[in-house]
Structure formats: C-alpha cells, structure tokens
Amino acid sequence: MKKILVSGKVQGTVLKSNDPINFLGTVDKKTGIISDKNHDLFQKSLKDSILVFPSGVGSSVGAYTIYSIKSNNVAPRAMICQKADLTVATGCALANIPLITITDEEFLSIEDGMKISLDTDDSNPIHHQ
Fold first, then answer.
1. Is the pTM of this model over 0.90?
2. What is the set of active-site residues?
3. Residue 80's domain is classified under what CATH number?
4. What string of pLDDT tens digits covers the 129 residues of the chain?
5. Cα separations (Å) of 88 from 54, 57, 82, 92, 115?
6. In terms of residue numbers, what domain contains 124?
C-alpha cells in the first residue's frame, strides 16, 4: 500500500538499491556517498537523486545522518521505499525530504536511472517522465 509520510513535490533521476540502507554506517555525512563496499550503491552519491530502496536498517541515530546530509546539501531530493522504518521516517521529517512507501510491484517497476516526478498531492504520486 502507498503511504505518504513526508509530503513534497520533486523530480529527478532514480538511484535504486535492492539492499536496505543503514544511514549511520553506510552514508558519508559530508559527501552523501555510500561508503560501505558491501552495499550495491558503493561509491554512488545520494545527492539530488530520488532514492529508491527496500527499507532502512540499523540505529535510530541514522535519522541524524539523514538530517546531516540535507544540511550539507548532499541529500536525495526524495526517498521511496517498500517499508519505512522509524529512522528513515524521522530523518526525512526532520530534513523535510519527501518520503513515500510503495508496493512490491511498484518497487519492481522503478528502474535505476529512470527520470520520475513525485507529487504527494496527486492521487497517483509517481510519474515516469
């Protein structure tokens, strides 16, 4: 089921991961680059992307990492996940990053590099460009 957790309207290019993201241990706060070599987004930057991933994992302190990457202007424009945990939801709310959850089918239909627009006021918030 689709759920809007933080509203907003953005467009951008999808950066998709099939791995959950531990924001505290995986994302560099200053650069927004994934630093975990075991992650499928290793060395990719979250900056200005529409980050699509299954869920967040790890410590609730990861919410501060999300806030930090926003403060350092290296955050994604929006996040879309299958399951939003408390860390991701809190971090996006603090940083004012649009966040929605989507169904497994929708997750499978979104591909890395796709250009999409997200408008949480729309009944169908994701549009492929």
1. yes
2. 59
3. 3.50.30.10
4. 679 999 999 999 999 999 999 999 899 999 999 999 999 999 999 999 999 999 999 888 999 999 999 999 999 999 999 998 999 999 999 999 999 999 999 999 999 999 999 999 988 899 987
5. 11, 9, 12, 6, 23
6. 3-128
